[in-house]
Queue: 3 jobs
Job 1
Amino acid sequence: MSTPEVLIIGGGPAGAAVALELARHGFTPCVLEAQSTPRLKVGECLPPSINPLLNHFRLTERLRQRVGLATHGNRFVWGSNAIEERDFIFSTNGPGWRLERQVFEEELMRAAIEAGARWCSGRQLITCAKDDAGHFKTVVKGPDGIEIYHADFVVDATGRSARLARSLSARRVVYDRLIGIASYFSEDQQVDSEDDSFTLVEAVASGWWYSSRLPGGKVIAVYMTDDDLLDLVTPRRREVWLALLNQTKHTSRRICKFSKGKPTPPRILASHTVRLTSVTGDGWLAVGDSAVAFDPLASHGIAMAMGCGFNAATAIVEYLAGRREAMHDYERLIDRAFASYLLMHHEAYVREQRWSHEEFWRRRHAREKARAKKS
């Protein structure tokens, strides 16, 4: 009997994790990735909690040799003017990671291919629907024109857009309007490369900032706010973004210490909380940001994506073996993870009361008050 065909739409960390785990179970999954090569993405830090999963996928040494530097904790200016610190020294999983994200995704792709997955880049989803035989017919635009793929099971790993799931009639619920405006600096080569491996989060009146030193001689700074609280054309100008950065106290001081020269042109990134009303269906499921995307304050982006991919692959194996309840088990797992996230989200934003009269914070505090009344 032939192995059922599994098609994964999207080759980011979630899609790669599904492909890697399925290949280790003897499947030959096919990944259809829209980009021809891994593109530049923001989101380069992994918490220590991901280390057991990296060990499971045999990725730890690959990261250490090519793309990863240790991060030993988080610093945050949140709820007061003082800098607080959460050190990873007491973590049973060891330190976290700072990644060169593009190279990291290349390594995930290579690992999946080496395990037995097929990887087809430059394939953009057009449509996906079940045919008369009950198989999924997926139409994509490839490098040489229209291509058609048939599969017994399909996976949505397209990110926040959830393009595949929405084509199968799933609906999204968007919880806020958060965006990130990110820029990179070149690191000052005269600064000790081992000095300050911590990430830094700093709350401000109109949102918050995140910064970190990264591999490849880069320093990143990201301004988080709501997309309707500023003219989105204006922050794309370096001088305007720098003026916003210079209004911070600790982040601007850190950037000044570790970087040199002008930043890259600022990029606007979707960062809102969003989830599908249902993350599974008959012969399909969604993973990573396609299923549920978290506020970056949670620091769970890549870890959630890869953990979700691992659990999705397990559910797919069981489903194709005849255990239909596996889809419900997976959905309940996502529901529990999202409920835990909402609690963390509530506790984090309520803790910051210094600018409760400002629109960015007023919205979040009002939302949390409404939830408290309902409960």
Job 2
Amino acid sequence: MHLDLPASGGKESTSEFVELSLSAGVEVVELVGGARRAPHPRFFVGTGKAEALQTRVAETGAELLLINHILTPIQERNLEAFLHCRVVDRTGLILDIFAQRAQTFEGKLQVELAQLRHLSTRLVRGWTHLERQKGGIGLRGPGETQLETDRRLITARIRQLRKRLEKVRRQRALQRQSRSKAAVQTVSLVGYTNTGKSTLFNRLTGADCYAANQLFATLDPTLRRLDLPGLEQLVVADTVGFIRDLPHNLVAAFRATLEETSEASLLLHVIDAHDERHHERQAQVNQVLQEIHAADVPQIEVYNKIDLLENGAPRIDRGADGLPLRVWMSAHSGAGIELLQQALVEHLSAGRDGSVASAATNTYAPVRQRLCLLPQAARLRDKLFKWKVVQHEATNEKGEWIVDVLVNHGMLAYLKRQQGCTLKACDGGQTTIKSPPYDQSDKS
């Protein structure tokens, strides 16, 4: 059930609502629509629409009515009593999806906390028999109603969950502190749900995380190390996707997880380039980032799924300072993944050696460099071939490797810090080797 209200998203909201229902494992029998200037205080929908819903529920034998809006507890109770079937609003639907997807102990605690906070305001729905007072000693106090007992038990459970999650939060804070002392930088993937964050995460890190074309396929955060030239200490985090009208109970319950985003060195804002309304969803993600105090973290916009565009080609868009602003790529096909890696290296290594990027001087343009590698730098030599930057290699009479490479700013800063490696600029910025580029597949 979806009502077109002045503040609703119209057709876009309806299609997303259907996707949410399917993600929850619901068999959609019929999608009922309507329009009102303002919600009805009793049923949310008008009395006429409520009667029509009652008829359709009886005819189809539906056991559940999903409403793509946030209802008050009284509205849910009135609708259930009138329709004689279970009624779940948008918040309850999202919470149910999260409950199905939670796998880790922390994720289950977070979802249970959000569910109990939501349930605590809805205990009166249809449970009039719980309002009877029962005397006695033990669990219930003299004269305490069953409703009051349930509220007390829920409050106690919420307090217990908060303590456990606070312990998790302290553990995550200690882990971030350890990474900070070790100069480990963290990149967090954020974005609207079902934009391809997990597919991109797997493509970047070689992980095998669950990725599917459904809303909230990822719930539990995953961290993996990423080895890039110039960035020895780098961790990438895959996070839960955001959505329009994300329940505040979820945001509060997932505080420990979302702090990984607010404390990250860089955010990769993954956007579905094929989505016609990606600008609106991008604004909604930025609004959630504002709520979790992550709006000031530097961002690189990753326009994903360019393979679904007619003339989609991988590219990097840069700002006036020369730093990458957005990367156009496809995580599914891998097109443009090397551009994203380059953007990560440039952004995270900028200013590390005191240099300042400039669009006019093109600081991040690839430069040719000649390296003299001592025999003990064999591991570094192997990395250079792995990164596919070697243009030519030779050995001198001392047994040292003379390697000509084509590197960017970040790689160059990394090489300057390595032991057993001496840098020499090629004549005029060009290599003096006249032979063809070195075959990357032959390191012998």
Job 3
Amino acid sequence: MNDLEYIEIGIALQQTISSDLANHFSIVPKLINDGEACFYFDSDRVSEIKSIQEELLLILNKNVILEPIDSVVLQRALSTYYRTNTESSKSISYSNDFLEELIFESKHINASDIHIEIYDDDARVRLRIDGQLIEKNHIKKDSYNELINQIKIKANLDITEKRLPQDGRIEYEDFDIRVSILPTHHGEKVVMRILGRDASHLDINQLGLEKDDLLIYLEAVRKSNGIVLISGPTGSGKTTTLYGTLKYLNSIDRNIVTVEDPIEYTLKGINQVQLKEDIGLTFTSALRSFLRQDPDIIMLGEIRDSQTAQMAIRASLTGHLVLSTIHTNSAIGTISRLMDMGVPSFLLAETINISVAQRLLRTLCENCKKEQPFNLNDLPKTFELDKEIKNHYVATGCPNCYHTGYKGRRAIYEILPMTIETTNAIKDGSLEQSQVMNDRKLSDKALNLFIEGHTSIDEIYSILIN
């Protein structure tokens, strides 16, 4: 049996067989030429070698050699090069083009981004799945520029421009790709964000809000005017929460308008505008136009500056419900940020319906998570634990989770309800020192998820520091 610890194959060799074939027979190509095909083969299935060789001979019309290798090593290679969506039986028809295959496979396995990057001696493709980058494969350096030009052509970008960043879009029937190209020291790096168009599957009741928090949130968004703000870093699920809210509010008797960058989902009955700053269509200018469109609900993709913040306040004061996102670390931090943008505290107290902060945490794979004794030294030194924890779970890795130890993500929310106590604390500037949050903080929610065994200390560590 081969004692390799890691299997590495190039793109050309990888494309000689499909993901379905690789996973069905538990094989990874080692060498394929005109008359012979040699594969790494799962050592746990050595009793099937003869029958599988015969089947592959009929399929490939080549002499087949199967080289047994440790099952864990082989499964890791299958997860890297021939990953499939185990939760879906939907079949994907790939073209012969590597780029098309990469895009459709990434969409199929729920990757959010595709990173294509070049270094001094090689190039590679990585996929962001459940918030984490996972290496997909390596690309020969001499074929890298051809791949970049393919992407540029599909995104309607200038293939001769290699010195400046470029942004474009590739459109498919049921999803779009947002393309960002950045010149680096060794060549151009590409990031392709996969944007699903259909928001029909979004349900505000299924986003992860706890029952009490959901009741508070729905009460806030049912108001006819005011501002609803969702905060969190990039990739924390803010847009999904907003779209779930819009779907909940969408009805025939409401005029809903949005300005977004980019439009990630489409919802029937909602008037959506794509931001185009290069021609002057900014959040602020769009909002001015919206106010002349007789809207009931306005959604701004993001409050980025003082002017947009002031306009959003003005819109809420004139009888509109405004929904938006903002980049802050906490629900209370949103209030401070708006004050820094020049919005008076008394206006904030009167117009904000609710402030929400959220994060997405990877959940441990139920198939392979391992329980072990808890050590207090695993927590940040600045975090004060007020609960007893005897054991916790850690990520290990198995074929079910593609050897990551995690499967799926769960949202946690920090809700700042606008009670009389909260509005008074905003007006007199004592919100930071008040006790209005109680056990609603993100750190409390993250710790509870950890104690219940749904996630690991590594996932919640940064939240506990804050």
